[in-house]
Design a protein that fits this description.
homodimer; 122 residues; mainly alpha; 5 helices
Chain lengths: 122, 122
């Protein structure tokens, strides 16, 4: 069964059982995907997280674990939390700009209401 | 030295060495902080991540690891990546609203320019 081992079992140099918890989410053609989660969480912790979830949620959990592990490898200090912080700042900037432009619209409308030709001109 | 063990060494039931990699970032008065990272990453992986960083970056790394571990415990499927996804959506919404309101301002300005009393009326 050597040729059909998943990326996790290849990485861990073990036989890939038919009910391998990793096999559906860590295919052999993408070894880096498992290498990332292995480096940050360890195989045992990833296996435990997946095992504790319903089968229908495991693919999504494997994807998000890979994403977070990749972020931590790229940025060992801030990891994925750094991205949360950057997005919070960008959201604050966008919301402040929105409030400013909305206030501008309201001011323009007030001005144009004041300049409207009175009805007794009709 | 039992009373001065850090939260990690207490959790791992071991002596806390004077150069403990965990002690500065996992004080004994906050045992949950270490419990979170231990559950998700394992003590050895957290120790390795901290050890590979300059001392000046370790507190921030410990904080972000705790944050991500807490997110994963609260949301085992999406973890911190779920927060990134939500913030991306909120940012998109805010930026779309901003573009709409800016277009509204431009349209109002165009209308009012068209209605401006010509200079030869002065």
């Amino acid at each position: 069964m050597n040729s059909s081992r998943c990326a996790a079992c290849k990485h861990l140099r073990r036989r890939c059982p038919s009910d391998c918890i990793f096999a559906p989410y860590f295919p052999s053609n993408n070894p880096r995907r498992f290498a990332y989660v292995h480096k940050i969480y360890g195989a045992s912790n990833v296996g435990k997280i997946l095992q504790d979830l319903p089968v229908s949620c495991r693919a999504q959990a494997a994807d998000t674990l890979c994403y977070e592990a990749y972020c931590r490898i790229k940025d060992p200090v801030y990891g994925c939390a750094g991205m949360v912080s950057v997005l919070h700042q960008q959201l604050n900037v966008a919301e402040c700009q929105l409030a400013t432009v909305k206030a501008e619209v309201a001011a323009i409308r007030n001005d144009s209401a004041a300049l409207t030709v009175p009805t007794w001109f009709d």
